[in-house]
Amino acid sequence: EAARLNERTTASRDMYERARVHLSGGVASSYQLRDPWPIYIARGDGPKVWDVDGNEMWDFHNGFGSMVQGHAHPAIGAALAARYPQGTHFGCPTEDDVVVADELARRFGLPKWRYTNSGSEATMDAIRIARAFTGRDTVMKIFGSYHGHHDTVMVSIGVEYDKIGDRENLASLPYGAGIPQSVVDMTVAVPFNDAGAMERRIERLEAEGRKPACVIMEAAMMNLGVVLPEPGYLEAVREITRRHGIVLIFDEVKTGLAIAPGGATEKFGVQPDMVTLAKVLGGGLPSGAIGGTEEVMSVVEDHSVYQVGTYNGNPLTMAAARASLEEVLTPEAYAHLAHLNDRIVDGCQAIVDKYDLPGYAVGIGSKGCVTFSTAKVVDYETFKENQDAELADLAWLFNLNRGIFMTPGREEEWTLSVTHTDEAIDAYIAVFEELAADLTR
Ligand code: PMP
User: Coiled-coil stretches, from where to where (predicted)?
Assistant: First the structure.
């Protein structure tokens, strides 16, 4: 499959040769790297993308889960076209900032909002607000969860199985070089789906005088395929953090606006103190937002925390966000996504069962995946222990060679857009069946 892909992507190879001269590694972000070369994209339209070789693909990658609106949505195009002649950046608030905040407050049940330009900035600022609000430094996160590329959260992700450490005392390891050890030491990770381990760790930290300012987590983990919370887990986390006076942050960069109108907060019915958004919010423009309770956000309003950024609330982004919320991400759109996602999950599961593959299909809202694993994944440890990494890699190549574009890597999920149709789902399922048949032949 690798050789076949190389043959189909010679224009990408040529562009890679050219790109490498002045663009480090030939890409704009290290997550775009791929051996032997990245796939360079020429354009997208609705549920499809075309690479520079002219290969047409159904897009299930969707810009790392950002493009739930689909590519070049006319409503967003119209909003951008209307905004552009009126100027695209002032560094001053505009009306769209207000309209978007009103709608986010309604959807996520949090009254106060601020904007950023990415998910990383949103989690960075949310953590600073939580630290200011509590007067504490330690940050608690879930082992294996990705929350962006700032130092505090580039800890305890992508860890090899033999370095994970003991469950009650999981390793704090930097993800890549250049992250100061003193910062790493302030971040403590606990396993997902284990409220008991979280509470015991909080109590130990408290005894050491290092009680956490916040717990930052995804309510459903999205960077290990999709790992859903076990019944009662989120409720227990809410109760524990409230009892200990710890700010609970749901990082909804991937789930927000993607799995329900009000994200995981609405879907699971557990109200955090803060929410971070990005990705889908901007409909393809760089975006980010932080929502919080009156109490927590008071440290922004009394100016003790500087939540700042030249491009925060950029008018183009906010025009796209407003059009998305008002015209694209409607109740009907979420019903359509749910219909498609049920079909793709059920279709994949039926194939897993029929061919007796190691794994299972899982989905929520617009997102899902086939987890190639010999046992159910409930946290990072069970993911690493049981994943059939070779099969996961093969599935990606196999899909790509047959016009199904997925996020490279073994950790990401599919994202559907409102422009996907039953035809796209049929194509996905057909290719998956072909893979299954090939594997068991
Ligand atoms: N949080 C989560 C849950 C994410 O998945 C990501 C990006 N994949 C981020 C934060 C960081 O967002 P960004 O890449 O926009 O900085």
Answer: none
Task: Look up residue 436 and give its two tokens.
Answer: 């299954």
Give catalytic residues, as residue numbers.
Answer: 146, 251, 279
User: Is 65's C-beta closer than 6 angstroms to any atom of ligand 1?
Assistant: no
Q: Which atom of ligand 1 is nearest to the CA of 218?
A: 3
CATH number reported for the structural domain that contains residue 138 in this entry = 3.40.640.10
Same domain assignment for residues 323 and 335:
no
Q: Do 28 and 166 belong together in one domain?
A: no
**Same domain flag for 183 and 92:** yes
> Is the ipTM beyond the 0.85 threshold?
yes
| DSSP state letters, 290-339 | EEE-HHHHHHHHTTSS----TTTT-HHHHHHHHHIIIIIS-HHHHHHHHH
Q: What three-state secondary structure class fits 64?
A: helix
Closest CA to 3 of 428, 400, 427: 400
Dump pLDDT digits (tens) for 40-98: 999 999 999 999 999 999 999 999 999 999 999 999 999 999 999 999 999 999 999 99
User: Is the distance from the beta carbon of residue 119 to the nearest atom of ligand 1 less than 6 Å?
Assistant: yes
